[in-house]
Amino acid sequence: MKRVLLLLITSGFFFLGPAVDARAANVATVTFSENLASGNSLVAYEVASSSTALTAVNQLKPAFVNPGFGFVSWNTKPNGSGTTYLNGAKYSFKSDIVLYAQWASLFSTVQFLENRSPADLVFSTESKNIATALTLFGSLTPQFSNPGFTFAGWNTKANGKGTALSDGQTYGFTSDLVLYAQWRKAPPMQPALVMVGALGPTSHATLTSIAGALTAQHAHVVEVVQCGAKAPAGSVVATSLTRLLLGHHNGSVNVTFRGFTQSAGPNLTEVFASELVPN
To answer: Cα–Cα 20 to 30 A to 61, which of 84, 162, 196, 250?
Structure first.
């Protein structure tokens, strides 16, 4: 091994310095660049004279931070088109090099909760790393349901006192979010209507029998439609039925004349009623 002997002459005295390895001067520097898309980027350095692991990104001083993004790797080009070095990879330190941090947008998750009750554990999730429209309520997997209620939007609080979001609203996905389904009491469904009788131009006498059938069925919701111009007047039939039914019911009766319709067959005034509505 070659050694260099240093001989110093100072004020008439000789000083013999320590032996130094000539290769110790062959050090190289790795410059780490924070490589932000905008603003000033920080730099950090690592110096070594032999193959050494690169300083881990979370141990650099000053600390590198890129809000909303996660570190992926290093690259010899700012745009990532050069040579890639993974976090903590070994570098030969035979020459100086500049490494640029490569960043990727972080994925965030929105959790949708069915929110039928505090004990309800049904949920669905959506993860994205860019602003995206939230999954539509009807497309969630599993599907949400709350019998007797209709979906009324999302809220960041189970009781609806937080921030409200509409179905399919765009969310930035810059942070995780929990959304609770909001429910509104569904209006009662009207019972199906069925035809209970029809009156022709000369069949006014059957009006009494129709009224009797409606009374027997406890029908409170009745609709009348006049099919054809020569059929018995629908408005008159509706009025007559109202009078006849009120004579048999203690409660209210809702008889409605719905209007006219063309008839390709006989001219009839048809009477419809709800099925077995309790009296």
So the answer is: 84
Strands 268-274 and 84-85: unpaired
Of 140, 163, 185, the domain-final residue:
185
Total number of domains in the chain: 3
Terminal-residue alpha carbon distance, the chain: 113
Establish if 162 belongs to a structural domain.
yes
pLDDT at 145 over 70: yes
List the domain range (segments joined by +) for residue 164: 108-185
Q: Are residues 170 and 216 in the same domain?
A: no
Domain boundary among 51, 86, 105: 105
Measure the CA–CA gap between 86 and 92, rounded to whole angstroms.
14
Span 50-74, average pLDDT: 93
Is there a single domain that holds both residue 17 and residue 86? Answer: yes
Assess if residue 49 is contained within a domain. Answer: yes
Cα angle at 125 between 123 and 130, to 5 degrees?
155
The size of the chain, in residues, is: 279
pLDDT band at 205 (very low <50, low <70, confident <90, very high): low
* Distance between CA atoms of residues 76 and 63, nearest Å: 20
Tens of pLDDT, residue by residue over 18-47, are 443 444 568 999 999 999 998 899 999 999
Q: Are both 206 and 157 inside the same structural domain? A: no
Closest CA to 88 of 59, 113, 112: 59
Kindly state whether residue 2 falls inside one of the protein's structural domains.
no
Report the distance separating Cα 137 and Cα 160, nearest Å.
17
Interatomic CA distance for residues 28 and 87, integer angstroms: 19
- What is the largest distance, in Å, between two alpha-carbon atoms of the chain? 147
**Could you tell me which residue, 199 or 13, shows the higher pLDDT?**
199
169 DSSP assignment: -
Closest residue by Cα to residue 191 from 146, 240, 254 = 254
Does a structural domain hold residue 1? Answer: no
